[in-house]
Amino acid sequence: MGGGGEGATYTVDDALTKMGFGTFQGLVLAYAGMGQAAEAMEMMLLSFVGPAVQAEWGLSSRQESMITSVVFAGMLVGAYTWGIVSDNYGRRQGFLITAICTFSAGFLSALAPNYGSLIFLRCLVGVGLGGGPVLSSWFLEFIPAANRGTWMVIFSTFWTLGTVLEASLAWLVMPTLGWRWLLGMSSFPTLFLLIFYKFTPESPRYFCTKGRIDEALSILEKISRLNGAELPSGKLVSDHIHELEMDEKCNPSEDTLLLSPTKRNDSPIVSPKNKVSSDTQGGLSSLLLLLSPELVRSTLLLWIVFFGNAFSYYGLVLLTSELSTQNSQCDPTSLHSGNSPTTNNNLYLDVLITSFAEFPGLLLAAAIVDRIGRKLSMSTMFFICCIFLLPLMFHQPESLTTALLFGARICITGTFTVVYIYAPEIYPTSIRTTGVGVASSVGRIGGIICPLVAVGLIHGCHQTLAIFLFEVVVFLAGTAVLFFPFETKGRELTNNSVISPSSSNSNISL
């Protein structure tokens, strides 16, 4: 940050650091958290709707799995699409479209007359849910660097609240009103995002990357008024300009220029004249930057971790319901004509209990993410998750099965929370939501595959093989974390730079 002289300058990070976390960020947290809870509810209901629809419409286990898999297929498309939209047209535009898509398709799926229409509408819900990373990136860009990890963990508690709320709602609604009412009622939290949308501000970091400094300053002034804190003295500039000013006092290293898209004497501001062509090419150029030699290692490792996280998290959610209803059906000494009311009650109770495991998972992540760092936090919890899953390769008493799933859910919730902190931190603002969105898309591939494992293999009485596959995926994800080239704990977000893979202390200009 510049001094108090006439030519002093400051960046968005400087301003946020000085003003701190206050009332403004609290309101942003409430809105983004509401979206996080709504997404969690739409995902958690898959544990209940699949078995209920299978029983009512006489579906095969493969058709039941498809009800879940098509949601992830839609998210695969949505995560990439909405990331590009938000990077080129603003965070607000990104999550507005996703909220409309999620609510409309979610509500209409409750009225689906047949299996085909239900599959189509749930796929559209997935397309909308794919915009989840946009809200998390939007919230992240208002948080000071010093306590960003802690506040992102707090943000993640809204997901847990959504899962617990959905499990409780299912327990109340499913036995009496059925799955259609659950689908309809679960779509309404997304409606609140649309109702309060007009009050949401755009990210000042986004404005800076587009050269709209006056609009960025206007947002910072609103933060200043609501938080009762003063802005730094001087003139607001983008990170790129600030770095160029600092470089005038020192010799830039060769690495500093590796990814620079413009010459040193070019203005980093996007002029109105070239803005249209820049936006048009934004999707392809952003993807190419993610796979550039300087970023490809981080990007590919991040994809492995997101795949492992999604596969294991949603797999554990589905395993909770499938192991509750299928263990006894695989017992050759038992005869079954269907799920008994007792079995259904056990299902709701088991899912509710394991959903509460996310609270200690969040507390664990909050306790260690800013102390031991992102990498060590994730790898440790991945490997502990493997330990909890190992006994489930063989049939266990129901109480022990629930306890082991509870422990595994704690760990995988913690890793999911930390990776959503780490991922936006390794990318610059100009491609941040695209980078996180693409990684999230890769994670959705894990979500598409996991129902075939959790549902298909368990239905076929192949529990040992199913758990072994989960073990392999979780272990590989934990190993991938160890190979991340740098740690991001305590580092500022940047508009136009990322950390060099070769050194945690060097920046690469973007």
From TrEMBL:
GO molecular function, one term: transmembrane transporter activity
InterPro entries hit by this protein: MFS (IPR011701), MFS_dom (IPR020846), MFS_sugar_transport-like (IPR005828), MFS_trans_sf (IPR036259), Sugar_transporter_CS (IPR005829)
GO CC field: membrane
Main location: membrane
Region (Disordered) residue spans: 253-277
Protein known as: Major facilitator superfamily (MFS) profile domain-containing protein
tRNA-binding listed as a keyword: no
Residue spans crossing the bilayer: 66-85, 94-113, 119-140, 152-173, 179-197, 300-319, 347-369, 376-394, 400-423, 435-459, 465-486
Keywords recorded for this protein, A-Z: Membrane, Transmembrane, Transmembrane helix, Transport
Pfam family, one: MFS_1
Localization per Swiss-Prot or TrEMBL: Membrane
Membrane topology: Multi-pass membrane protein
PANTHER family xrefs: MAJOR FACILITATOR-TYPE TRANSPORTER HXNZ-RELATED, SYNAPTIC VESICLE GLYCOPROTEIN 2
Domain Major facilitator superfamily (MFS) profile: 28-489
